[in-house]
Write a structure and sequence with these properties.
The complex is a heterodimer of chains A (211) and B (739). With 211 residues, chain A is mostly beta strands. In chain A, the strands form two sheets. In chain A, strands 1-2-3-4-6-9-10-11 form an eight-stranded antiparallel β-barrel. In chain A, strands 7-8 form a two-stranded antiparallel sheet. Chain B folds into six domains: 94 residues, Sandwich (Immunoglobulin-like); 92 residues, Sandwich (Immunoglobulin-like); 102 residues, Immunoglobulin-like; 183 residues, no CATH class; 89 residues, Immunoglobulin-like, CATH 2.60.40; 105 residues, Velvet domain (Immunoglobulin-like, Sandwich). In chain B, the strands form 16 sheets. In chain B, strands 30, 33, 36, 38, 39, 41, 43, 45 and 46 form a nine-stranded mixed beta sheet that branches. In chain B, strands 6-7-3-1-9 form a five-stranded mixed beta sheet, with no helix packed on it. In chain B, strand 63 and strand 64 form a beta hairpin. Classes of the chains: A mainly beta (211), B mainly beta (739). At the A-B interface, strand 2, strand 4, strand 6, strand 7 and strand 8 of A face helix 1 and strand 4 of B. Strand 7 of chain A pairs antiparallel with strand 4 of chain B, so a sheet runs across the interface.
């Protein structure tokens, strides 16, 4: 586990770095941005960063419509960050600076989030001794509230064919919400896919491969 | 990829989003539980603790899974927070220390105000007790004066540093039992008691909250026993007479001046000699408890000397409280000497008892140790208390008096009051003897006497009792008149004797103590009456018995009297004569008017004794007597035998004999057997034949057929006989010549 955490920490830092880099690159997006535009619908499963989930619910996901045009892309969609004791979900919008390196399109971006959060907190449980062994009896309090957040993400997309892309992404979101106060950062990692919406935007399948 | 309809994809996306949202509604986030079931318990708890003790109490909560819940906050609350203090342990949140502050009982509630848990609070009774109780002052406090105070301390035993120590202020209660000897002031550990009345109270210190089995009560005896001190107003007294009474004012009180109504004081002469010097009155006055003034007897002087009298105060219980001694110096001072009787009238032949000369003090009491010297006129003598006349040629008047000297004189005692000694002189009138004969006709004696009182005055209005052994008195007593004169007429009888009149001065009515105030003789007048001429008519003769057996004697007594029957003591044998018949009369002797002679009866039949004075039979003369024969004694031949003419013939005259007593009186009752025997005087041998052993008949023996036989000779016949056990004196006939 320490290795995994270390790895995730590295990934998170890299994501933040990517966010910052995206902002910088956004200012200089003129040369690298693809010239054509297209619409994508994508869906990501983002529970990889928190595989263990002690409840039955929909895992962390993201679903968005992305519009790429030139060197930038924007996307808006639904983001859900699920942990065992909390759920933050809502809409978000992000600006992305796609960078193609070979067959892989890097999609660093930053975004804003607005939605709600719900969390359970074991704040009133109690400790006990049983047979000389200490234990804890949890007692959860459930709360909901609005949530706002900012995040940085780094996606990796590999076009498969002209219409789809396989994706992997990591993102680091920081939320402002009472239910998750004190535990307001969420690192999301996962995989997904994107489907190009036909009939919307310029058809530039070759662009996906880069020139 | 043209065949992919973008619209379809959008629809799919929208559908997917809706499904996702729907899925998202089922968050299944954990919540609750709202509360837990649990059980609150007190594993460590002590219901009863001693003040000062620190005990640990613990609480525990077990959840539904029998797990002990940790890190809880408990709430301990006591209904009366003043009894015990609770302090949460610094190391364990579920334990507290309970520090007992003061005794009592309260309810302690353990609760756990944690909304997460549903528990039932626990209520326990906490009893805070003391470990014991002790009276720390003396258990026997005695107050010695009313109003005295004392303080009694009691303390509770509480714990301090693990050991029991005494501590005050723990709610001790006192119970007072008893007669209320003390008044209690205050409550609690320290009370003050004030002596209220003699007695004993029991003070019990107790506590309502005391460790079971511990000493939870202690007893103090509060006694009020007054220490009474005796105070005498005077300790020394002096008296110059007997009968004087004196005594000190006595106070028997404690040091605060309070007495006791039940206390007593007695006066006790120290020695037997002291008891003889003073006597005591009954207790006088009233004992006043508030001041200690005591009712006490007084001393009455009764003996000369220094009397020591102990004054003893007694507590109500009879024990001795205090004592002191007083001294009573008693010295009688003579104010008068007296020889009683002060007036005497006596004839020369008489004696009058005289009391020894006495000296008296001013109260009239005799002075026993006075030195007295008696002076008696010549012609008088006092020996062994009897006044006699030694010389009585003529009637005369004498005196007796006494003087005193020595310690009984005032001059011999410093401080004694100046006193003049008065001497009472006794006047003695001596009369010549009075004599007359019984036939005198002027025997009356008129007596007049002037009574003399002590001090020389006349004794008036005093009775004199007249006592005559014979004779008559004009009155039994006489009251002295204003001149002190008493009179009486005494007529002696004709009895020839010395007759006596006594005058007895009666005791003075109301006179007490002086022992010599009893009556005494002031008159002794005797008259000697002598008998007149002997007169046969008043004289009489008597004999002891009139029946005699021959030989018996009896005294014949002749009382020779005068005309009034006085024995004529001067009678001599020649003045009287006795003549006897049937017997003999002896020589007469006379003494005191009684003449006697012995009469002896000798001849059977009637006899007599005749007594005459001047040839005249006296009364009872002659005295008749009867004489009977005595016992058979001898034989008398009444008829001598006469022989017949012829040889061997019956005697011509047969002998006849009588059986007689010693005085020849025929014993007619005799049945003696007589035996005739022949005595050969001379000649041949003659025999006597016939009935030789006849029996007496009516005292007479008659032979009927005696005859001689044998040869002719001279003989006598001897008659012998036996009457019962008596052998009769034999009789012998005259000599007879037998033919």
């Amino acid at each position: 586990m320490p290795k995994i955490q270390r790895f995730l920490r590295v990934i998170r830092h890299a994501t933040l770095f990517t966010g910052g880099l995206t902002a910088v690159m956004a200012c200089r997006a003129d040369a690298q941005a693809p010239a054509s535009s297209k619409w994508l619908v994508r869906a990501d499963w983002l529970q990889a960063s928190s595989i263990t989930l002690d409840r039955t619910t929909m895992p962390s996901i993201a679903a968005a419509i992305e519009w790429r045009k030139g060197a930038f892309a924007v996307e808006a969609g639904f983001l859900r960050a699920v942990r065992s004791l909390s759920t933050i979900q809502g809409g978000y919008a992000a600006i992305i600076r796609p960078v193609r390196l070979g067959p892989v399109i890097f999609l660093p971006g930053i975004g804003l989030f607005g939605g709600q959060s719900a969390a359970s907190a074991d704040t009133t449980g109690y400790e006990y001794l049983s047979g000389g062994v200490a234990g804890h009896q949890p007692r959860y309090s459930y709360s909901t509230g609005s949530a706002f957040g900012v995040g940085a993400q780094l996606g990796f997309a590999v076009p498969i064919g002209a219409w789809t892309e396989m994706r992997a992404s990591v993102a680091e979101w920081s939320f402002s919400s009472d239910p998750v106060k004190g535990d307001n950062a969420r690192f999301l990692a996962g995989v997904g896919f994107a489907v190009r919406v036909p009939g919307l935007g310029t058809r530039t399948p070759s662009t996906a491969g880069g020139k | 990829m043209r065949f992919i309809n973008s619209r379809l994809l959008a629809r799919l996306a929208a559908l997917g989003s809706a499904a996702g949202l729907l899925w998202a509604c089922q968050e299944n986030l954990l919540s609750g539980p709202t509360e837990f079931g649990a059980t609150l318990s007190m594993p460590a708890w002590t219901d009863t603790i001693i003040v000062g003790d620190v005990k640990t109490a613990t609480a525990k909560v077990i959840d539904a899974q029998s797990r002990e819940i940790q890190n809880l906050t408990y709430h301990w609350a006591a209904l009366d927070t003043s009894l015990a203090h609770f302090a949460v342990s610094a190391t364990s949140g579920n334990s507290i220390t309970v520090t007992a502050a003061k005794p009592g009982a309260t309810t302690v509630t353990l609760s756990m105000p944690d909304q997460r848990f549903v528990v039932t609070s626990i209520a326990k009774t906490l009893t805070v007790v003391i470990g014991g109780l002790a009276v720390s002052t003396s258990h026997d406090t005695t107050l010695t004066a009313i109003g005295d105070t004392a303080r009694v301390f009691a303390s509770s035993l509480v714990k301090a540093s693990g050991v029991l120590v005494s501590r005050s202020g723990q709610g001790i209660k006192w119970v007072q039992k008893g007669a209320g000897a003390v008044t209690l002031v205050g409550t609690g550990d320290s009370i003050r008691m004030i002596a209220h009345a003699p007695g004993t109270d029991t003070l019990i210190a107790r506590h309502d909250y005391c460790l079971a089995g511990a000493r939870c009560a202690d007893t103090v005896y509060a006694r009020v026993r007054q220490t009474l001190k005796l105070t005498l107003s005077t300790k020394t007294f002096t008296a110059w007479t007997f009968g004087d009474s004196a005594g000190p004012a006595v106070t028997l009180a404690d040091r605060r001046g309070t007495g006791n109504a039940l206390a007593t004081v007695r006066l006790v002469p120290v020695t037997t000699a002291d008891s003889a010097r003073v006597t005591l009155t009954a207790t006088l006055g009233t004992t006043v408890g508030a001041t200690g003034a005591m009712a006490v007897a007084k001393m009455i002087t009764a003996g000369n000397g220094t009397a020591r009298v102990a004054v003893v105060g007694f507590n109500p219980d009879g024990s001795k409280a205090d004592s002191d001694t007083i001294t009573y110096v008693i010295r009688q001072i003579a104010v008068r000497t007296t020889i009683e009787p002060l007036t005497v009238q006596m004839t020369e032949l008489d004696t009058v008892p005289v009391r020894a000369a006495v000296a008296r003090d001013s109260r009239g009491y005799l002075i026993g140790d006075a030195t007295l010297t008696t002076a008696i006129s010549s012609g008088l003598d006092v020996t062994a208390g009897k006044l006699t006349v030694t010389t009585a040629a003529t009637a005369f008047t004498g005196t007796m008096l006494a003087t005193v000297s020595g310690a009984a004189l005032a001059a011999s005692n410093a401080g004694a009051p100046a006193t003049t000694l008065a001497v009472d002189t006794s006047n003695v009138t001596v009369l010549k003897a009075i004599r007359y004969t019984a036939d005198s006709t002027s025997r009356a004696q008129n007596l007049s006497l002037t009574l003399k009182a002590s001090g020389g005055g006349l004794l008036t209005n005093r009775y004199v009792r007249w006592i005559a052994d014979v004779g008559s008195l004009s009155a039994d007593s006489a009251l002295s008149d204003a001149s002190g004169v008493v009179t009486v007429t005494w007529t002696p009888t004709t009895a020839a004797r010395r007759q006596l009149l006594t005058g007895l001065l009666r005791p003075l009515a109301g006179t007490t103590a002086p022992a010599d105030s009893s009556g005494y003789i002031i008159v002794r007048r005797s008259v000697t009456v002598t008998a007149g001429v002997a007169v046969a008519a008043t004289s009489s003769v008597a004999i002891r018995t009139a029946a005699f057996t021959a030989g018996d004697t009896a005294t014949v007594t002749l009382s020779v009297r005068d005309a009034v029957a006085n024995l004529v003591t001067s009678t001599v044998p020649g003045d009287v004569a006795f003549v006897a018949t049937g017997g003999t009369i002896g020589t007469a002797t006379c003494s005191g008017g009684i003449c006697t002679a012995i009469y002896t009866g000798t001849t059977t039949g009637a006899g007599s004794v005749t007594a005459t004075i001047g040839g005249v039979d006296v009364t009872n003369s002659p005295l008749a007597t009867t004489i009977v024969a005595g016992a058979a004694s001898k034989l008398i031949i009444m008829t001598q035998p006469v022989p017949a003419v012829g040889h061997n013939a019956v005697l011509a005259t047969q002998p006849v004999l009588r059986v007689t007593d010693a005085y020849n009186n025929t014993v007619s009752t005799s049945t003696a057997v007589i035996t005739a025997s022949l005595n050969q005087v001379s000649g041949g041998v003659t025999t006597l034949v016939g009935t030789l052993n006849p029996t007496a008949v009516v005292g007479t023996v008659t032979f009927t057929n005696l005859q001689f036989g044998g040869l002719t000779g001279t003989i006598t016949i001897t008659f012998t006989g036996v009457d019962g056990a008596i052998t009769l004196v034999a009789a012998t006939s005259n000599s007879i010549v037998a033919p």
